[in-house]
Amino acid sequence: MTEAQEIETGARARTRRAIVEAAVRELARDSAASLGQIADAAGVGRTTLHRYFPDRAELLAAVGAETVARLTEVHARARVDEGDARAALRRLCPEYLLLGDLLTLLFTGVVPDAVLDGEGAAPLAALVARGHREGSIDPELDVEWVVGVVWAQLYLAWATLREGQAARHDIVPMLVRTVDKAVAP
């Protein structure tokens, strides 16, 4: 690959990333945001957006893929395979909050539930199942129930943060404590 081709490839990747990031922001603010609004937010023309994403479905698929990638990063940062499962869950909850506007897209269904039901949520479900086996998470609570409790508490925490009702440093300890107490054996 020539230097000019490398520069072009890098520029295309940056433009694509800017469009996906703008889509996340705009769709979190307004799930019906038009492709024109997203293009404006990304600082590109509508024709440029259409070169990367010919239609809304392809853009939403890219946002879904970004969600899965970010969930994977979150699970890695939280070191979900280290220590007991309950301790890993306590590390994971604050990391989930860092997903920011992606949480809004998950909670409002802009990103399909399949992302949460598929590879995006598999590490959380596996973590809960491990907690059941080792006794650190109440085995009388179904895996799906515990996963639902985590997402419900994340919804409350993110909504509170987004509405400016409390600061992150106040919300995180309440989120972690609530989830921890809810799943304790």
Automatic annotation (TrEMBL):
Start and end residues of each HTH tetR-type domain: 13-71
Please name the PROSITE patterns in this protein's record: HTH_TETR_2
Keyword tags = DNA-binding, Transcription, Transcription regulation
Lineage, top-rank taxon, reads Bacteria
* A Pfam cross-reference name: TetR_N
Q: Which residues bind DNA?
A: 34-53
InterPro entries membership:
Homeodomain-like_sf (IPR009057), HTH-type_TetR-like_transc_reg (IPR050109), HTH_TetR (IPR001647)
The major lineage groups are: Bacteria, Bacillati, Actinomycetota, Actinomycetes, Micrococcales
Recorded protein name is HTH tetR-type domain-containing protein
